[in-house]
Write a structure and sequence with these properties.
Bound molecules: zinc ion
Helix content: 25-40%
Number of strands: 29
Structural class: alpha+beta
Strand order of the largest sheet: 5-4-8-2-1-11-14-13
Strand content: 15-25%
Distance between the termini: 5 Å
Largest sheet: 8 strands, mixed
Number of helices: 30
Radius of gyration: 28 Å
Shape: globular
């Protein structure tokens, strides 16, 4: 929970995790995050749907490739029906493509192009409803939309891969096409590739035929219409495993050589398809379901209709699979849910994108609840709430807004918050009504484009419950309630009086008062009773019967409502809550609050017991974290017991917390022992990092030996290299320099670069080596070097960084990140200030009057904050992968 909050340190720490093919303990969230976060600076997605001139019925796409030139050679035939009379030309979105010819209904047609469009002249004014065929021949080297991943001298065994990524508005970079979600077309993908390649696209595979020496042509047909951002092609050297589920093909493909990761990663796919089909009452809607993992994918996953693409970073190494609770389920279930929400019923514009992403987030947690139990799902939602409140700039922005430059600008609202809002709607309607409403929504809008009003209508038609107010507050309105709650006990009346205030700032803007059902629980020695209330006013008082002074009062038992609460409770009540509250979120809340009670023996004892004995791992993790925050000998003793936890993801947290107790020399011995002996690689890695962090005596020797140990996905070696940086021992520099050489595994190169940012800062040879890496062909490496140079703070780097920034040679638009690092070098203090500002972990919405105390360079600080917030949002978006792959804590 702290990582994404600490702007700078989050970023630098993540760099250490960058790996090209690393799949295990840690995922390279950073690059995924960064690519997406930065893309937003370079373009603006259209927030409003366009008015259409024509309907695209069918797109027949024929592609071949020049691998040496990284070129696409294409022909697309569009079958089009004009929607109005008198059109003189047909416009297609087309960026950076050379148009070789255009034909209209079999005859050459005049055409022209500009930066964004291809205009094809009609030979006579259009009549609504008539039909035209437009065939366009073109070629180009796409800057976006279609990517070539190819071997080179240093990485000669890299499988050859081509993959596309259409969302949001990038299909136009490799196909001239109508490219906005508010239309749908059938597609044919006819692709000619080397004969030993495999291809995957939307819909059914029609044929594979010889196409001249060494080549084959694959024909895929998607007969049900889809929006063009969902068009996909993956082609290359892949290993595959073919299964069927309810008579449709369900195939898995991974980069060649990684077949052993298919089973651990994808095993639960058929069960998941059954669960979603049955729960929604709408069978899986497409001809087949393919999942293909590709290298260097720019996102976690993409829900292309019937053909999901996933990052190969999410694949689980068979020896590491048991070290994570849910494997890649979070990612897999998210993308699979989109096959219904997003692909079958597709948002008509980016402003309503929550209809795709909020549902996918909600459904992924629903799978988690089904497969891993209510406690795991509740704990996920608790973390999701905390993540929402941490991203302060989201608070005043509604889930549906047209005020953005990029459709991902408020990702934290349309993913995390929207998922929680849907869960509240489920709570309030009840499962039967809620899932019937979803079924009706999907059936009524099958193969249609939708806006929020379509969902409201479907819910009301199905349930006869009017949900206008709910949507007004949660979807069209911004923020969430912030409650101040206080209770007194009236012994004479035998009543608990509860005063509830809504304290969110409702002056102007989009945030209002909320009308929410709340369950209050009152526990006395005679037992616990629940009372449903509705809170709707700014200030209200409620009374509840209680035979004696309550041991505990819970406001919103089980944490069902997205909200923040200030509710003063005694130490004894908190302890009682930690020990006795029925629901995980309430126990976790108590653990967190007790973590603030330094020097309170009873709190430490209670946390220690929870860390050792709570039956749910998340409470144990939260208790360990609280103990780490409290510090001191008694807390240390309790954390040590956590090393015996059966779950590796809990032991890992115990190790991380132990690293903070700095006044016990014996701990270094303990950590060394864990680094060598724990049964889980992720725990051993955490111990190595802990040794570096403690700057323990003799740590360098341990780290050097660890760097020689082979382990799955180099978990141990990578941790050792990263720990050398944290340790800050200049003697590590020569070894680290060896690990950054071309040909070494990418994940180790980036880890070594990250560490070189932290030591031997006066060493000019290291500085110039890192500067040279700014010209490397690999984006991950360039980016790691950018951060390392920022960390080193040597002004020699400013000019080369400027040059790189101006060259624009950072695929996902790394300009702002480079600026950030230059600013760090120029003003080291400022970065600290930024850290301080973003370190607020209170989970409260933005305080009013935040603009006070303007710093001299406030503008820069604010802009840097924005970058970090984007990172945090994308991190949140991908949190599932991270949780499962890296660590059990939020
Ligand atoms: Zn999604």
């Amino acid at each position: 929970m702290t990582e994404e909050n600490h702007g700078r340190s989050f970023v630098t720490r993540q760099v250490g995790r960058i790996r090209r093919r690393g799949r295990v303990a840690v995922i390279s969230i950073f690059v995924l995050v960064l690519g997406a976060a930065l893309a937003l600076r370079l373009r603006a997605d259209e927030p409003f749907a366009r008015s259409r001139d024509y309907h695209l019925q069918n797109a027949r796409i024929e592609l071949r490739f020049d691998l040496d030139q990284r070129q696409v050679i294409g022909q697309v035939t569009h079958t089009i029906t004009p929607l109005k009379d008198g059109l003189r030309e047909l416009d297609f979105d087309s960026v950076g493509l050379t148009i070789l010819s255009a034909r209209l209904d079999g005859k050459d047609a005049h055409f022209s192009t500009d930066d964004a469009k291809l205009h094809v002249d009609l030979d006579r004014p259009s009549k609504s409803g008539e039909k035209h065929e437009v065939t366009i021949r073109y070629q180009g080297s796409p800057k976006k939309g279609l990517y070539f991943i190819l071997p080179n001298n240093s990485y000669s065994s890299q499988p050859k891969e081509i993959w596309t990524q259409g969302e949001a508005e990038d299909t136009r970079y490799y196909i001239p096409i109508y490219d906005y979600p508010n239309d749908r077309t059938a597609t044919e993908m006819i692709v000619t590739v080397p004969r030993d390649w495999v291809t995957v696209s939307n819909g059914k595979l029609q044929s594979v035929v010889d196409a001249g020496p060494g080549m084959k042509t694959w024909t895929w047909r998607q007969s049900q219409p889809i929006s063009t951002y969902l068009i996909s092609l993956v082609a290359g050297e892949f290993d595959e495993s073919k299964k069927t589920w309810r008579n449709i093909p369900v195939d898995y493909r991974v980069p060649h050589g990684e077949a052993d990761r298919i089973e651990p990663t994808f095993a639960r796919t058929p069960e998941m398809l059954s669960f979603f089909s049955d729960r929604l009452g709408v069978p899986y809607p497409w001809d087949k379901y393919d999942q293909t993992a590709v290298d260097q994918f720019s996102l976690g996953g993409m829900e292309n209709a019937s053909a999901t693409t996933l990052t190969a970073r999410s694949l689980l190494h068979p020896e590491l699979a048991h070290e994570s609770l849910e494997g890649a389920d979070g990612l897999i279930s998210h993308e699979m849910s989109h096959q219904w929400f997003g692909d079958l019923a597709t948002t008509k514009d980016w402003a309503n994108l929550w209809l795709n992403e909020g549902f996918a987030t909600f459904m992924a947690t629903l799978w988690e609840e089904h497969q891993y139990g209510v406690d795991n799902a509740a704990y996920s939602r608790w973390r999701s709430q905390a993540a929402y409140f941490r991203q302060r700039r989201l608070f005043n922005v509604p889930i549906v807004t047209h005020e953005f430059r990029d459709s991902m600008e408020y990702a934290g609202n349309i993913y995390g918050k929207a998922g929680l809002v849907l869960e509240m709607l489920r709570e309030q309607l009840g499962d039967d009504a809620f899932f019937h409403a979803l079924q009706h929504y999907l059936e009524a809008n099958r193969l249609q484009n939708v806006a929020t009003a379509d969902l409201i209508k479907a819910i009301e038609e199905s349930t006869h419950v009017d949900v206008d107010r709910f949507f007004e507050e949660w979807i069209y309105g911004a923020g969430a309630p912030r409650f101040a709650v206080s209770t007194t006990y009236d012994a004479g009346a035998k009543q608990v009086r509860m005063e509830v205030k809504q304290t969110q700032d409702v002056r102007g803007g989009h945030v209002g008062l909320f009308d929410v059902p709340i369950e209050v629980a009152v526990a006395t020695s005679a037992g616990s009773k629940s009372f449903p209330i509705t809170v709707s006013k700014a200030d209200e008082t409620f009374s509840f019967p209680a035979d004696s002074e309550p041991l505990l009062v819970l406001f919103d038992k089980g944490d069902k409502i997205l909200k923040s609460v200030e509710f003063h409770k005694s130490d004894a009540q908190r302890i009682y809550q930690l020990q006795h509250a029925e629901d995980v979120p309430d126990r976790v809340d108590a653990a967190q609050a007790l973590g603030d009670m330094k020097g309170n023996d009873a709190a430490i004892t209670a946390l220690g017991e929870a860390a050792a004995r709570d039956h749910f791992w998340g409470v144990r993790v939260q208790a360990l974290t609280a103990l780490g925050r409290i510090g001191g000998a008694q807390a240390e003793k309790a954390v040590l017991l956590g090393l015996m936890d059966p779950e590796p993801w809990v032991r890992e947290v115990a190790v991380e917390q132990l690293s903070k107790f700095s006044d016990d020399a014996a701990l270094a011995t303990k950590l060394t022992e864990i680094a060598n002996k724990d049964s889980a690689y992720r725990v051993r890695a955490a111990a190595l990092l802990g040794l570096g962090q403690r700057k323990a005596e003799g740590a360098m020797t341990t780290l050097e030996s660890a760097a020689k140990i082979d382990s799955p996905d180099d978990v141990i070696r990578r941790a050792a290299l990263r720990a050398m940086g944290t340790l800050g021992n200049d003697q590590a520099a020569p070894q680290l320099l060896e690990w950054i050489e071309p040909g070494k595994p990418m994940r180790l190169r980036t880890a070594a670069i990250d560490s070189l940012g932290k030591l031997a800062k006066k060493d000019e040879a290291i500085e110039s080596r890192l500067i040279a890496l700014l010209n490397d062909s690999d984006f991950d490496l360039r980016l790691a070097a950018v951060y390392a140079l920022g960390e080193r703070g040597d002004s020699t780097a400013i000019e080369p960084l400027e040059t790189l920034r101006k060259s624009g040679d950072i695929p996902s638009g790394g300009g702002p990140v480079i600026e950030q690092q230059i600013a760090r070098i120029k003003n080291p203090g400022e970065a600290q200030e930024r850290d301080r500002q973003s370190a607020d972990n209170s989970g409260n919405p933005p305080a009013a009057g935040n603009g006070a105390n303007q710093q001299p360079n406030q503008q820069i600080v604010e802009r840097l904050d924005k970058i970090d917030q984007n990172l945090a949002e994308m991190n949140e978006r991908l949190k599932k992968i991270e949780q499962q792959q890296t660590r059990a804590t939020p």
